[in-house]
Every structure is written in C-alpha cells, then in structure tokens.
C-alpha cells in the first residue's frame, strides 16, 4: 500500500516540469518602445529666385596695334641729329633723324652741273639740226644724254632728301635703334612707330564655340595693369577659316579709345555676352551637385531633404539657371549635401530663428 501512495506525487511533479518547459517566455517590457529616430543633418540653405542671367564666352586675348612700322634709313650714312625720343608722338612725314649730307650735297651739285651742260648742248644741237647741219643720230644721242642727266639729278636730289629719316605713319615712337654718330646701312631699321588708336584684341576660339560669336558683339576686357576697370570693344572681324593645327578661329576685337593706358602686347581676359534670359529660376552654384553626369539639387520640404534631378542652363557670377526640377521659392541646400540622401531629415543652420527675427524687428520699431 505504501508504494501506491508515492506514485501520484511523482506524476504531479513530472507534469509540473513539463508545463514549465512548454510555457511561453514572458514578454520583454522594451518591445513596445519605438526605434530611435534618424538624427537631423545640419545644412545651410538658400531660396531659388527669379532673375536675369546672361551667357558669356570667356577667354584670353593679346593687344596688338592696328598699324605699326619699322622706320628704316632709306640711304646709308652717319647719324648727325636725333629729333625724337621714345614716347614722342609723331605724324606721317615728320622728321625723326638726319644723316650727314655733305657728300650727297656735292653729288647733287655735280649732277646739276652735268644736267645744265647737256641741256645747253642739246639746245645748240637742236638749232643746228633744224639747219640740217648734223645728223639725226647725233641729235638723238644728245637728247638721250640729256634725259639720263636729268634722271641722275633727280636721284641725287632724292638721296639728299632721304638723308632725313621720316615717319611713314601717325603714332608714338615706341623704339629707337640708333644713336648720334652711328653708321647706319641703307634699309636698316632706325625707329619703330606704333599707332595706339585703334588697338586690337586678338584671340582664338575653338571651332565648336565660334557659333556663339558674331561681328558687332560687345566685348569687355580686363587687364592686370588696371584690375578694377573693364575696357569695352566690339568684334570687328572673324576669320573665315579654321586653323587646322589648333582647331581654332581667329577673332579680332577693336578696342574703344583708352588713351595710353592700354598698350600693344598687354595680355587680358575677354568676356563677350552672347545671350540673356529673363525670369529665369536661379540658385547658387553650390546648390548643384553632379554625380554620374547627372545634375541634382536637394530641396528642403517639411524638414526633409528631397533629391531632385535638374536641367542646368546658364551660369554667371556664382549663380546657375535651373531650367527644370526646381521652382522659384523652393529652399535648396547649398552646404552639407555630402551627408544627405533622399528623405534625410535636416536641420537648417546659418539662418536667424523666427524669435530672433521678431525681437530684432521689435527692437528696430522701438528704436
């Protein structure tokens, strides 16, 4: 009887263990809490606005003189007198220097004497020829000798005139190559004269961009010598051929008069406006990001940054035209895009709070 009495206790204990093993585990008190929110990324923003933007071709140009000339000594000789110096203004025909003239003056007197002798002989033979006292051959010989003497006299006179070196053009003496006492050879350069009005700005445009330019367009040039000023000009001519070695086209701009502030040989930067757009949607250039050859902008809506693909137009002075993808009044991210993806929460920084603005407005009104 004692054995039967112990069995029920064992069965009850075993069932209790089985129930404990199969019972579900108590629920975690933390399962009901929400997942942590994604932290907001601090960004700086700007507002897309309507405005006017222009398109310009930009490049570099070199100033050249429309007219300049090496002034040569037409005859050889020793420099006797200098009449101008570098920087002097001259007109066409002005004397720049004189060579010694003693020998040429004597040669002119000799040629004149020979001419007078032959003229007298010819007049005498003319009278005799009318009387048929000399032959036609003798008469013609004296006539030809007279013509030769006349030519020799003219040459001697011209050589004496060429002893004075004269400027062939108006301009400024930009270089002097001779000194008093120098022996100069015939046709050797003695001076260089440069014409400063007009000056030409010459540059070369890639053939794929030449369609943007046309004769008559206004050009603005800036130079390191005058960093705070721009000088105006106008496209005078465009070469009709493409340089096969460089693939560029020569463009010449005629500069407006600027006194002597601009000089041939100066290197400048040229800007030529070729198109303009009114009522264009404009954003800061920093707002546009480019990835995989696609342009995009992050627009802030309801505290989140939304990535929008955009079509970019003209760019000028740090502003970019957006042809599609952004509207005027949209808030665009200009700093902090590297940490953004589509729908990222953002915190706008770098702008005054509304309370601060109201306080500032109140203070201004009280003041």
UniProtKB/TrEMBL annotation:
Residues 203-272 form the CusB-like beta-barrel domain. Residues 281-347 form the YknX-like C-terminal permuted SH3-like domain. Keywords: Coiled coil, Signal. Residues 1-25 form the signal peptide. Residues 101-132 form a coiled coil. It comes from the Bacteria. Residues 70-194 form the Multidrug resistance protein MdtA-like barrel-sandwich hybrid domain. One of its GO terms (molecular function) is efflux transmembrane transporter activity. GO terms for cellular component: efflux pump complex. Residues 345-367 are annotated as: Disordered. NCBIfam families: RND_mfp (TIGR01730). Belongs to the membrane fusion protein (MFP) (TC 8.A.1) family. This is Efflux transporter periplasmic adaptor subunit.
């Amino acid at each position: 009887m004692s054995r039967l009495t112990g069995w029920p206790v064992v069965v009850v204990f075993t069932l209790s263990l089985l129930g404990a093993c199969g019972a579900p585990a108590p629920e975690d008190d933390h399962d009901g809490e929400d997942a942590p929110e994604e932290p907001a990324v601090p960004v700086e923003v700007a507002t897309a606005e309507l405005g006017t933007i222009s398109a310009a071709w930009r490049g570099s140009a070199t100033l050249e003189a429309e007219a300049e000339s090496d002034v040569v000594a037409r005859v050889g000789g020793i420099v006797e007198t200098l009449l101008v110096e570098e920087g002097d203004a001259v007109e066409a025909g002005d004397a720049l220097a004189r060579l010694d003239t003693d020998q040429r003056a004597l040669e002119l007197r000799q040629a004149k004497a020979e001419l007078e002798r032959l003229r007298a002989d010819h007049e005498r033979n003319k009278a005799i020829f009318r009387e048929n006292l000399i032959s036609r051959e003798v008469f013609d010989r004296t006539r030809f000798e007279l013509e030769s003497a006349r030519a020799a006299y003219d040459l001697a006179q011209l050589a004496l005139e060429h002893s004075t070196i004269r400027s062939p053009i108006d301009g400024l003496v930009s270089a002097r190559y001779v000194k008093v006492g120098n022996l100069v050879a015939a046709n050797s350069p003695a001076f260089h004269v440069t014409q400063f009005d007009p000056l030409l700005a010459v540059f070369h445009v890639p053939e794929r961009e030449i369609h943007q330019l046309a004769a008559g367009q206004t050009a603005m040039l800036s130079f390191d010598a005058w960093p705070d000023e721009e000088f105006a000009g106008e496209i005078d001519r465009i070469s009709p051929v493409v340089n096969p070695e460089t693939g560029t086209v020569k463009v010449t701009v005629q500069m407006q008069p600027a006194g002597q502030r601009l000089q041939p040989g100066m290197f400048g930067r040229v800007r030529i406006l070729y198109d303009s757009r009114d009522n264009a949607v404009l954003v800061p250039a920093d707002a546009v990001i480019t990835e995989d050859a696609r342009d995009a902008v992050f627009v802030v809506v309801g505290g989140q940054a939304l990535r929008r693909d955009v079509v970019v137009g003209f760019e000028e002075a740090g502003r970019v035209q957006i042809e599609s993808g952004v509207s005027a009044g949209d808030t665009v991210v200009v700093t902090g895009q590297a940490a953004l993806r589509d729908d990222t929460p953002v915190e706008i920084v770098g702008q005054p709070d509304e309370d601060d603005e109201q306080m500032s407005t109140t203070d201004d009104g009280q003041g």
